[in-house]
Specification:
45 strands; mainly beta; Jelly Rolls; elongated; 7-stranded parallel beta sheet; about 500 residues; 3 domains
């Protein structure tokens, strides 16, 4: 120790190498009235190792002990990453698991997965990559204005994997820039498919690309921003899911797709986002295809706001060129600028066919050629059998079906449900009875208007059946009859 002096009742400790601290440690307060304080000190040498001359360096300050305020006059170089002070008084303690980074060389080589690397200032990485160890890496900062990792080098990857792959990568409270030609933020492969990449309060500024992550179990973006450049992120391999929430994207140059399908992408969980995104003149938001998503209704866009050069156009299919809201893999809701998923089907009778009534008061499937006009999450695996393809919910069933038969016959139409793939239809969910009107000419018709609610689950089927309660007289459903099912 070079020496010490007293300034306004506080001991100034001068350390070898020209560093100095105001560092009173009030471990023993002998007289709180007269503010008589006994101090204990620590020393720092010129080598990487240093020792503390006492076992407990924690000091709890009283509210009136103004003279015990800690004022750091100068950094002590490599050692300042292990000291935390509370500016208005409080505990002083060593942060054993934090490494404060002030230069790129501190992120070189094999990094310590048991430590948090804290970015103090703007660190120019040049052409030096940061290798994410198999045991993972945590990097944090003061915020995306004060803490930044940047590189303008060409053909550069900021985060890379060693042979055998990487573990978790956790980034928080900082900004990242990789603006060189053919450069990217991530070039990462999971070591065993069990890890996560998470960005919490991270801005990606003017990045040429966000790069590629492969075989990671999951990814999470929370409170992130992509500003400028072409920050496309490629997802490859087997993943459980990816979520980008409370995120914003602005000022991009033309891109291929903000979220890109990489090699053999297979997402067994969900992709979900509510991003506020302004796309450039050219480029998609997502380019996933149904084959990339394993489970039904697990491509979720909910509460998103997506524009192209400031224009809202939910009919712009170039925003999602390979999939849309009608796919059984999609569940899109509460969005602006992209369409929302509504489950429905409408079928029309396009060919009249006689339904033979062999026995009075016996139901028969109502025949005729039924043609799908439009559908989402429904199909018709057999003529007249309508199947729900995903999920479950409450549905409104509507139909308008005129039936031609003998005048004054009493007819009954019912809607029945199958839960065994159409093998049987044991459940009656609705029944309507009508009398055939004795109209002038040869046309005698009963008019059936169907409107009711029912609950359906995935793979349930509905079909129309008819009976003649008066006699064994055949019936014909007339052209332009229709049957509609829509989720409510």
């Amino acid at each position: 120790m070079a020496g010490e002096s007293v300034i306004n009742g506080v001991t100034k400790i001068e350390i070898e190498g020209g560093f100095s601290y105001l560092f009173p440690i009030a471990n023993i307060i002998t007289n709180t009235v007269n503010d008589s304080i006994t101090y204990k000190y620590f020393t720092v040498g010129n080598t990487p190792a240093f020792t503390i001359s006492f076992s407990d360096i924690t000091n709890n300050y009283g509210a009136t002990d103004a003279e015990t305020y800690v004022d750091v006059l100068a950094t002590i170089g490599a050692y300042n990453n292990q000291i935390s002070t509370t500016p208005s008084g409080g505990d002083i303690s060593f942060l054993a698991n934090r490494i404060v980074v002030t230069q790129a060389s501190q992120l070189l080589g094999t990094l310590d997965s048991t430590k948090q690397y804290f970015i103090d200032g703007v660190i120019d990485m040049g052409s030096q990559s940061i290798e994410v160890p198999i045991a993972g890496l945590s990097i944090s900062g003061y915020g995306f204005e004060l803490s930044q990792l940047i590189s303008t080098s060409n053909t550069y990857s900021m985060f890379t994997s060693p042979l055998g792959g990487s573990g978790n990568l956790l980034l928080s409270n900082l900004a990242v820039t990789t603006s060189g030609t053919s450069s990217q933020v991530f070039n990462l492969i999971d070591s065993d498919g069990t890890h996560a990449i998470e960005h919490n309060t991270v801005n990606f500024n003017a990045c040429t690309s966000l790069g590629e992550i492969t075989d990671y179990r999951q990814g999470l973006e929370l409170n992130t921003g992509r500003f400028g450049g072409t920050p496309e992120l490629t997802l490859s391999g087997t993943m459980n899911g990816y979520r980008a929430t409370t995120s914003i994207t602005r000022g991009l140059s033309n891109i291929t797709s903000l979220f890109k399908t990489g090699t053999e992408l297979n997402m067994s969980g969900r992709f979900i986002t509510d991003m506020n995104c302004e796309l450039p003149a050219i480029g998609a938001f997502i380019d996933f295809a149904p084959s990339n998503i394993v489970n039904d209704e697990s491509l979720i866009i909910k509460g998103a706001f997506i524009t192209r050069e400031g224009v809202i156009d939910a009919s712009d299919t170039t925003i999602h060129p390979n999939i849309d809201q009608t796919s059984v893999k999609s569940k899109w809701s509460d969005n602006t600028g992209v369409p929302n998923t509504t489950k429905y089907i409408k079928v029309n009778l396009t060919t009249e066919v006689v339904t033979t009534i062999a026995v009075v008061s016996t139901y028969y499937p109502l025949l005729g050629t039924w043609t799908i006009e439009k559908a989402s999450h429904f199909d018709m695996p057999a003529n007249g059998e309508i199947r729900l393809l995903s999920g479950n919910g409450t549905y409104q069933v509507v139909g308008d079906i005129p039936i031609d038969s003998n005048p004054n016959n009493e007819l009954s139409i019912r809607v029945t449900k199958s839960i065994d793939g159409g093998a049987t239809y044991p459940t009656e969910v609705n029944n309507i009875k009508r009398v055939v009107n004795n109209l002038s000419g040869g046309r005698d018709v009963a008019f059936f208007t169907i409107n009711f609610l029912t609950d359906l689950k995935k793979n349930d089927r509905l079909r129309l059946e008819i009976e003649n309660q008066t006699g064994a007289n055949n019936v014909i459903a007339e052209l332009d009859s229709f049957f509609t099912i829509i989720e409510v």
